[in-house]
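Researcher: Quick test of sequence recovery. Tokens follow.
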């Protein structure tokens, strides 16, 4: 498990500098490469996929389903992971410029884009394996709440507005990013080439999200009486939802047995250690994460909170009201 760094209050740690990361740029036409003799020679032409939001529309990795994995299971698993990112991205997008300052508004916007960058290839893979003629947009905008498979932590209203506040938002981000980072770090080593490639591109980004949220939890928790109370109240409200993060769905269990997925219960101790360290620095006391129970079905089975129809109505209304013709 990696060691967290709380040495600085870097409020930009969650941002991805896409403009400064050449890995997210397409190669420019007419690029040149210097040969050993110092002469500039044209770089060999290579066919590259169309780029959208910095993500290849048609990744080059092998897309065959590994032996021992059912395509329907793999489609459902991709849907789970994609829905998690999509719903949290939409919730974070509501902050816009409503954060404590413009700098933090930009940071939350960058995290939102990161999550959409994760959701898109996962939903595209789910649609591909489903084979029903839908694409990622069809899955995002043309399902009702019972068809979504995200965890409830991603969908609840944490603000802005009467549903929550900034403390609740960063507390949710800390819990979500700590859990998702641990899962994706392991997912990078699994047998499915598509999921492995997505995880390898993603887990370091999730680490930055986690540390960005941790800095805010520490800053608020170790701050004045009001900020401390708000942060403690936020974590206490969210804590019961953490049990669902580690409940293993049958699809996850079957795919994990084929080394094509990660059963989330295996990361519980690692996530607990990260949160314990963060909360210790913030001087906040909460129950042991490994002892939080979970009963019932939850979002992985399509059983969502009462807020889910409202968040979907907000997310989907434009597409449904004025669909774009192909």
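Model:
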């Amino acid at each position: 498990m990696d060691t967290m760094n709380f040495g600085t209050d870097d409020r930009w740690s969650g941002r991805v500098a896409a403009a400064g990361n050449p890995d997210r740029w397409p190669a420019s036409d007419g690029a040149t490469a210097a040969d050993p003799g110092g002469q500039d020679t044209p770089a060999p032409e290579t066919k590259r996929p169309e780029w959208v939001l910095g993500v290849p529309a048609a990744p080059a990795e092998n897309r065959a389903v590994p032996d021992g994995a059912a395509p329907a299971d793999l489609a459902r698993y991709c849907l789970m992971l994609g829905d998690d990112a999509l719903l949290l991205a939409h919730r974070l997008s509501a902050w816009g410029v409503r954060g404590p300052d413009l700098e933090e508004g930009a940071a939350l916007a960058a995290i939102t884009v990161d999550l959409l960058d994760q959701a898109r290839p996962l939903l595209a893979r789910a649609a591909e394996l489903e084979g029903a003629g839908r694409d990622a947009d069809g899955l995002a905008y043309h399902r009702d709440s019972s068809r979504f498979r995200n965890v409830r932590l991603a969908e609840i209203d944490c603000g802005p507005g009467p549903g929550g506040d900034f403390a609740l938002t960063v507390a949710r981000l800390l819990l979500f990013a700590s859990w998702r980072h641990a899962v994706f770090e392991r997912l990078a080593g699994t047998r499915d080439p598509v999921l492995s490639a997505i995880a390898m591109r993603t887990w370091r980004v999730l680490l930055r999200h986690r540390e960005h949220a941790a800095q805010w939890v520490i800053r608020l928790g170790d701050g004045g009486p009001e900020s401390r109370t708000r942060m403690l109240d936020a974590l206490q409200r969210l804590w019961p939802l953490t049990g669902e993060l580690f409940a293993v769905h049958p699809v996850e269990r079957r795919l994990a047995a084929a080394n094509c997925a990660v059963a989330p219960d295996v990361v519980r101790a690692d996530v607990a250690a990260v949160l314990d360290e963060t909360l210790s620095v913030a001087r906040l006391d909460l129950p042991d994460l490994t002892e939080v129970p979970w009963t019932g079905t939850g979002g992985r089975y399509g059983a969502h909170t009462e807020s889910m129809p409202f968040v979907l109505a907000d997310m989907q209304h434009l597409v449904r009201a004025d669909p774009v013709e192909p």
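The chain has one domain: 68-321.
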